[in-house]
Amino acid sequence: MKGRVLMNGEEKRTANGPLTRLIADGPAVTHRKRRRETLMPDQWPDESPGTGKLIQTETETASPVALGTPVPLAKVLSAGASRLDAIARGEPFESEIHAEFAQETPILEIDHFSLSYGPKQVLFNISMIIPRGKVTAIIGPSGCGKSTLIRCINRMNDLIESVRIEGDIRLDGTSVFDPAVDVTEIRKRAGMVFQKPNPFPMSIFENVVYPLRIQGVRDRRVLAEVCERSLRAAALWDEVKDNLHQNAMQLSGGQQQRLCIARALAGDPEVLLLDEPCSALDPIATNKIEDLIRELAGTYTIVIVTHNMQQAARISDFTALLYLGRLIEYGPTRRIFSAPHLPETEAYVTGRFG
Ligand SMILES: Nc1ncnc2c1ncn2[C@@H]1O[C@H](COP(=O)(O)OP(=O)(O)OP(=O)(O)O)[C@@H](O)[C@H]1O
Ligand SMILES: [Mg+2]
Hints:
The protein is α/β, with parallel strands linked by helices and 354 residues long. It is built from twelve helices and 14 strands.
């Protein structure tokens, strides 16, 4: 496949599409954990890693393939087995990046990015852009590094002593790892919402305006305006406007999750990072969050990790499949679910492995 992509605003061509070939070669920068930083409250880690489950669902658009008990991918795919075996052996692998990214403006550039927890490497030379104003879904089997990757975007992994990284992630052209960067600011610009809603044991109002409080904003009028605007944007205002001083812990799970989104929006982010935001919610609450994501797209760039293939197909513009810490295939969602380039991707989105 021939492709064109924009990196750093510069158009480059590739013989066969993989973005990994496109980013300027240069010495990889190794960033070691430097110091503990103040976290935005909605970015406090609340989950132990590796707890998600693959929910196998038939996709709406994929070819009809019978679902069965998940088995290792290499065992079910003769065509792709050697490639996956090679990945498992740690041999180099080139991501399959679709040409459509040439028409997109990147807000985030993930550039030859690798990460290890102590001696264990979990992300391998990932290069991809996140298009501005679009919804990008990250899918892949449990433990493949989805949460690790999105937590790097706003430096959440700084909290883990053993983390070592190579490569770079740029937000609007500036490295998020630049020593001159204010980490609190990065976490405001790339707000995060976790799998399990994590409201603070305080009122709804104080939860929403927390990002302003820690900036020292005291003006009641400003706080009230931001609270209402954020709750409206998170589609929660009508349900809570008469009870803003009620403790947020009394809200339902779905309301709590929208409250966490409102809190992230109050920080005026450019990017919203959602790590399985619906996995603890019932179908009605899930629908509300999905509708909300579609409404917020355009104004915000959204990156969502999900195990729900139907959800990825419904709400995202682009989908990236990770496997064993590698970016396998990345393209427009409709292509990934209906005509992926790689047999491995088709096997995953049709539930044949995980
Ligand atoms: N703090 C940590 N210390 C050591 N290893 C970690 C840490 N966090 C994650 N890992 C390991 O890194 C790998 C990737 O984990 P990560 O949580 O990013 O996967 P994931 O794709 O989000 O999985 P899931 O779908 O289950 O949420 C796993 O092998 C996990 O055990
Ligand atoms: Mg995860």
